[in-house]
Predict the 3D structure of the following.
Amino acid sequence: MSFDEEWSHVRGQAAAMRLNGVPADPGGGSGGTSDYKVTSAELKAIGNEAQELFHWFERDAFHAGAQTDAAAKSLDGDGFLTGSAMWTMWDTWRGQAETLLSACAHIHNHLEDTVTSHVNREEVLVTNFSMSTIDEHFK
């Protein structure tokens, strides 16, 4: 079997694959292949944007923390209820900011791992196809 024949066979199997019982092409319009394609470069670019947002937000999200704490303590000390409200607001902001930072890091790491695993999987496929071609010569 030639490389092209074997590759065509593997692509045919992949086109018929079902995930969670859903056909590979639920819309039925593209003959079993998806019209949506993403390259490793695009995934890397999205991951890099998430990483850039992480670094920008990490730098800028917490700069008012010390001043907010001081103001809240001062207001509390003077008997104003807004001091505890200010502290509650800051605590809520900090929690939401940390959640966003975690999401950005997760997106970046996941996309970086996706690109790396895709490259590794391609190397395995190329090696396997090369081995099947070599095996033909020993038959």
Remarks:
- Residues 28-32 have pLDDT under 50 and may be disordered.
- Helices lie at 3-15, 40-60, 65-77, 82-137.
- The chain has four helices and no strands.
- Residues 79 and 137 are 89 Å apart (CA to CA).
